[in-house]
Specification:
316 residues; alpha/beta; D-Maltodextrin-Binding Protein, domain 2; 12 helices; disordered N terminus
């Protein structure tokens, strides 16, 4: 048996002086080119010289992130397999999928938050209301008349709009699509009048006048759309924000490894070049300790479970 100090040195070597063979694989549950994939590649590229490891991204899309999550949950907890996940996988899925094949609370250790995706409520230019207050008034005057699009049942686009409707006391009909691009295409074509969309794909269309902005998610206005109010400015107490993304390790990964990765990632998040990249992807950078990130996940899990239960959202 190795002495305790030898074991400690071995663990530390995973993130301080690894061999060339010790490549870190970051599993991303989306296809190549999607926002989480681009973020994972950027993080790996910037962490590699800090840690002395090479980083590779492995795309494992499908099943609302469950395929990628399960891959990492079953991997060796040695710091060489990480997961880039978002709140839908870690805080929403447990409330939506009774048979989910991983437990976000017990199968993973949070490492570091990376950023929060900004979302904007957009509408086709022919849609008469220009503000959220006008939209609410129109919906109250004609109950169940208006449809809204989303990227799918249980996605943040859906939950955010359903929660908005419930708080405003209006009736809207949900039209789920297979992903944000399909939703956006139908809003552009006027087939569905409005819906929440990620800021990055929406920005060029907003600038060209192809679509218009009604409101943004979050506690603060977006620096990209400073004249567009938040939902909470019209509906005080509205708490849904954009999706966060972060790094996770399999349960059992040594705390020394987790803390070192958190420390180096948070240093990276403060760098101007990384901030510019994240903002350019339509995200707001996040810097949290391991404990703060764990608390965010716990609170979001409870909050989303309560919202999903109250709104009666379920996967057929």
């Amino acid at each position: 048996m190795l002495p305790r100090f030898s074991i400690a040195l071995l663990l530390l070597s995973l993130v301080v002086a690894p061999s060339l063979a010790q490549t870190v694989t970051v599993v991303v549950p989306t296809g190549a080119g999607a926002a989480p994939d681009l973020l994972a590649r950027k993080v790996g590229q910037d962490l590699a010289p800090r840690l002395g490891n090479s980083f590779v991204v492995e795309n494992r899309p499908g099943a609302a992130g469950m395929i990628g999550a399960t891959t990492v949950a079953r991997s060796s907890p040695d710091g060489h397999t990480l997961l880039l996940a978002w709140d839908g996988m870690m805080a929403v899925n447990p409330a939506l999928y009774p048979q989910i094949n991983y437990n976000p609370q017990t199968d993973f250790l949070p490492i570091a938050a990376l950023g929060r995706v900004e979302f904007v409520l957009v509408a086709h230019p022919s849609f008469a209301p220009n503000t959220l207050a006008e939209l609410i008034a129109a919906a109250k005057a004609a109950p169940a008349k208006f449809n809204y699009g989303s990227a799918g049942v249980g996605e943040v686009h859906h939950i955010a709009m359903a929660a908005l409707a419930a708080q405003a006391g209006i009736q809207l009909t949900h039209v789920p699509y297979k992903g944000g691009p399909a939703e956006l295409n139908d809003i552009m074509g006027g087939h569905v009048p409005f819906g929440f969309i990620g800021l990055t794909p929406a920005l060029p269309l907003l600038k060209s006048g192809t679509i218009k902005a009604i409101a943004v998610l979050g506690q603060r206005r977006s620096e990209h759309l400073p004249t567009v109010p938040t939902v909470a400015e019209t509906l005080p107490g509205y708490s849904i924000e954009g999706s966060w993304l972060g790094l996770f390790a399999p349960a059992g990964t040594p705390s020394e490894v987790v803390q070192r990765l958190n420390s180096e990632t948070n240093k990276l998040i403060k760098e101007r070049q990384f901030i510019d990249f994240v903002v350019g992807q339509g995200m707001v950078p996040m810097e949290l300790s391991v404990a703060q990130f764990a608390e965010l996940i716990r609170s979001d899990t409870a909050r989303f479970r309560d919202i999903i239960t109250k709104l009666g959202i379920h996967i057929n």
